[in-house]
Structure formats: structure tokens, C-alpha cells
Amino acid sequence: MRMDDIRAVMDAAGSNRAVIFGISEGGPLSTLFAATYPGRTAALIMYGAYAKWIRTDDYPWGPTREQHEAAFNAYEKHWGTPIGLKTLAPSAANDERVRQWWAQFMRIAASPGAGITLYRMNVEVDIRAILPTIRVPTLILHRRGDRLQPCEGARYMAGQIPGAKFVELPGDDHMLWIGDADSLLAEIQEFLTGETPMLEADRVLATVLFIDVVQSTQRATEIGDSRWRDLVDNYHQLVSKEVARLGGRVVNTAGDGVFATFDGPARAIKCARAVRDVVGSLGLAIRCGIHTGECVIEGDDVAGIAVHIGARVAARADPGEILLSSTVKDLIAGSRVECSDRGSHTLKGVPGRWRLFAVQECAR
């Protein structure tokens, strides 16, 4: 049994007793170990885990067997590509670096046949009868919008394990390290030590780039929902590729908008110009806004007044236009970027008046 691997590793490491942490399909495995070897289990922690992965009359959560079969076929056909990211890590599904990493990870981790065999084995797992036998301190963590493992299944497990603590966290990502991992780690630290860590937000100077599709509602109406979704997917992939190429990071791709950050305004401007060129091949027009300021970094999220200013600058741009705040204009003084003054404006929700500048030329 795979459970014996845990014991073998502990023996080899000279570990008599340990906290067992099971992630996703590691949850059932860890649960079986805790039930079988309670004396060697200091505590049991699970994240994104499940007791059963097939929807049935007595377990109304998760995919049906038919849905799993369709997934088997898709994974076998597209193994080694970014397949599954929209389910596993929707917040990063259009991040080109994450897409490349995931595709490479799949190719290195297993062959298509071995991967599907493991997938099929995990689908057949059903440890519901084991849950009431757990007699060790247990913490179950789950993100509310997890698209792979429904939160209801985790809540069910917590109700079946005596004394288990269940913590439901915001977020849609199944992959633990995507999204707000700090909050998950804080819950684990508090559970094991009784101490709650102070999670201080990092503050950094960053350049924010906002990109919006012009007249997106009208275009969606013209071509229909299905074709529009495909078009937006292609658009997001093209944008993410350009952002990654120029050293930026996609923070959010809500709707047809893109929010990215860069370590300097010149890269952000180059990216905006490149994106404007490539999305033209899709028949789309965009508007862009760029601002540089202090941003608050909380996990994978980026917030702060600088973000709001960047979004408001973008909202002021005309179709095909790249607008800069005066802060960015000052920072690129002496560069090859030529700008024209667009006058002084009020930005919704931002105090004072802001002078904006439109990019005319920039070095490629």
C-alpha cells in the first residue's frame, strides 16, 4: 500500500512521530495512515482533500463517473500541455510562466499512461468508513471556490472525524501554492503551536498596467457567447505571453481585462505596445493605463492606491491609446518614449487632479 511509504520514510529518517500533511489525493492516504498508526501521528492536516471523488446518490459532490471518463480521455490526449489549469489554478491559468511550468511538470512527472493510471486509482478511493475512527488532532483546510474538490466534501469530512477543525478560506485555486498561501500557513501554525503569526503585507514600488478590450459587450453580442469565450481565451494567452516575455507578472484576468505588474515603467510601456500590436490579429482593440507607485503585496494579490490609480488611468484612455500618469512620465524622462499631453483629469475615487500623457513612440 502507498500508506506504507510514509512509515518507511519516517523509519529511515528516524522519526518516531510526526504531523502528517495530506494535499489533494494525499488526504485519503494521510487519513489511512493516521487511523492505522495513531501513535506515530502527532496531528493530521489536510488541504484540498476528499473522502470520495465520484458523485453518487449518497455522496452528492464532485464529478460523475461519466465526467471523469471524459477527463481521462482529455488528459491522455493533451498530456504535457497546460491542460487542467483552469480547474487547478484559475487565478494563474493565463500566466504564461505558470502554463509553461505546469506543462513541463506533467512531462517530467509521468508518462500519459502512468498519469492516467494514477488518476483512475484516485477516482476509486472511498475512505468514508475510516473517518470516524480517526483519534488524532485534525485540521481540514479548503478554499471556498475550489473547482477540483468541492468545499462541501471537505466539510463532510470534518463532520465525520471526531473533534476535527474545519477552516474554509477564500479563493478558487486548488493548488496550495497559488493564491494566498500565507493564510493557509498561518492556520497551520496556529493549529500546531497555538500562536497566530502576524501577516505583514509587503510594500514595494511597482508599475501597474491595466489593459481593457474596447466595446467588448458589443463584440460578444455580435459573435455569440461561445465564440466570444474562445476569443477571450486566445486574447488572455497572447497578453500573458507578452507580459512574461517582458519580465512582468499577470495578477488578474477578470473578464476581458488584464492587470499586470512590472519592475519598471519602460517594460510596461513596451508590453502595452506589443499587446496592442498582437491583439489586432484577433480583431480586437484595447485601451491601456500605466502608473507607478507603492503597492501592497499580499500573497499573489497586489493592492493599494497605486492599483486604483492605474485602473482609473486606463478608463480614461481612448481605443488604441496607452495613457500614462504624470508619475510614469517623469520616470521615463530622457528615454526614447515620446508622449503627448492629454491634460488634467479627475480620477474616480482618487483625490486631486491628475495630468495624463499618451504614448506616441517607444523603443521596441
From TrEMBL:
Keyword presence, Hydrolase: yes
Annotated CDD domains: CHD
Xref: SMART domains: CYCc
Entry-linked InterPro entries: A/G_cyclase, AB_hydrolase, AB_hydrolase_1, AB_hydrolase_fold, Nucleotide_cyclase
Lineage of the organism: Bacteria, Pseudomonadati, Pseudomonadota, Alphaproteobacteria, Hyphomicrobiales
Keywords associated with the record: Hydrolase
PROSITE patterns reported in the protein's UniProt record: GUANYLATE_CYCLASE_2
Occurrences of domain Guanylate cyclase (ranges): 207-314
Name the record gives this protein: Putative hydrolase
PANTHER family linked: BIFUNCTIONAL LIPASE_ADENYLATE CYCLASE LIPJ, HYDROLASE, ALPHA/BETA FOLD FAMILY PROTEIN
Domain of life where this protein originates: Bacteria
One Pfam family recorded for the sequence: Guanylate_cyc
Alphabetical GO biological process terms: cyclic nucleotide biosynthetic process; intracellular signal transduction
One of the record's GO molecular function terms: hydrolase activity
